[in-house]
Design a protein that fits this description.
The chain is of the alpha/beta class. It has helices at about 5-10, 15-25, 30-45, 50-60, 75-90, 105-115, 130-140, 165-180, 200-210, 230-240, 255-265, 280-290, 300-315; strands spanning about 60-65, 95-100, 120-125, 145-150, 160-165, 185-190, 215-225, 250, 275, 290-295, 325-330, 330-335. The chain folds into three domains: about 5-45, no CATH class; about 55-165 and about 300-330, 3-Layer(aba) Sandwich (Rossmann fold), CATH 3.40.50.2300; about 165-295, Rossmann fold, CATH 3.40.50.2300. It is built from 13 helices and twelve strands. Helix 10 (about 230-240) packs parallel to helix 11.
Length: about 350
């Protein structure tokens, strides 16, 4: 096992100098510090876990989390993944402070970011694609806070990395799946949370792009419901009453239970085919009722766990993400393979 003492002997410095160079504590000549780091890497040096845990506890690593999760059951599994990861790293003194909000109001998200900024060294954010939020992300990064965007990204921020699905591919996949299940003719209602959410817009764009290959697919309208089940029910019900010719509904976000309840008010022979995203309990219930025919799964538990993993690696090990995007595959799920 390679020790600090061994590195110190090979570099001709004291063990204390090696400790300061590798852990960023105190002043060390830049050239000497670089030599020590190269030697440590060459020898495959790994810090003692117990010592690292002790050092981490002294530094009080705190990760803030802001999620637009209230009323959206998808995030239950995201939060479960985050909490499980936090328990795994508890020996290092890691704390995870989760704040939630309802809907997509930039002002509320900015308020929570301001509230957490003085307390945290890393922030995991489910961001709203708003210029003010993007500017705030950049401000936090400039202040030395590690930022992970989870489940959704934004246009052009300086965040350290993104963890989530490929939304554009999800839109393409949902259109291809609809074609495979319904044939080459459909009168379609597209339903999403908000175009203020980059992922929702990307799914919409992906669906519309793939639809160009299907001559007799026609989108009647695009409905937005703020990921609110009541709005989803009311707006889907009004849409179906206004457009009895509808043969398919594609839910590109949450709100599937509300959509399903609206569909169930129609006679069975007049119900459109429904394709959704995610497999929250209420969506599974709608699949058992035969209302939702298929769903596209995007690994919420893994999204939450991985986001905390990456923040922990940075705060405790000083390790930057290996890539800008950590994409979890879109997977088609039927009732039979849930």
């Amino acid at each position: 096992m390679v020790t600090m003492k061994k590195i110190a002997e090979l570099c001709g410095v004291s063990r204390g100098t090696v400790d300061r160079a590798l852990n960023g504590r105190g002043r060390v000549n830049a050239e000497t510090a670089e030599h020590i780091r190269k030697m440590a890497k060459q020898l495959g040096y790994e810090p003692n876990p117990a010592g690292k845990a002790l050092a981490a506890r002294k530094n009080r690593p705190i990760i803030g989390v802001i999620l637009s999760s209230e009323g959206n059951a998808f995030f239950d599994k995201v939060i479960e993944g985050m909490k499980d990861a936090a328990r795994e790293y508890a020996v290092y003194g890691l704390q995870v402070d989760i704040r939630t909000m309802k809907g997509y109001q930039p002002e509320e998200q900015l308020r929570l970011m301001e509230e957490l900024q003085p307390e945290v060294k890393a922030l995991i954010l489910n961001p709203i694609n708003d210029a003010r939020v993007i500017a705030k992300i950049d401000e936090l990064v400039a202040a030395g806070i590690f930022v992970v965007n989870v489940n959704n990204d934004v246009d052009g921020s300086k965040r350290h990395c993104y963890v989530g699905s490929d939304y554009y591919n999800g839109g393409i996949t949902s259109c291809a799946l609809l074609e495979a299940m319904i044939g080459r003719s459909a009168e379609i209602g597209l339903i999403l949370g908000s175009r203020q959410v980059l992922g929702h817009k990307q799914r919409l764009d992906g669906f519309m792009h793939r639809m160009q290959r299907v001559e007799n697919f026609h989108v009647i309208d695009v409905i937005e419901h703020e990921d609110d089940e009541i709005f989803a029910y009311e707006r889907t019900k009004a849409f179906l009453l206004a457009h009895p010719e509808t043969t398919a509904l594609v839910s590109l976000a949450a709100g599937v239970y509300g959509i399903g309840r609206a569909v169930m008010q129609l006679p069975k022979e007049k119900r459109p085919m429904v394709i959704a995203f995610d497999s929250v309990p209420t969506t599974v219930e709608m699949m058992k009722f035969g209302v939702v025919r298929a769903t596209i799964f995007q690994h919420p538990y893994r999204q939450g766990h991985l986001a905390v993993d990456l923040a922990f690696a940075y705060l405790v090990n000083g390790r930057m993400p290996g890539k800008q995007e950590y994409i979890l595959k879109n997977e088609i799920r039927l009732l039979e393979n849930l």
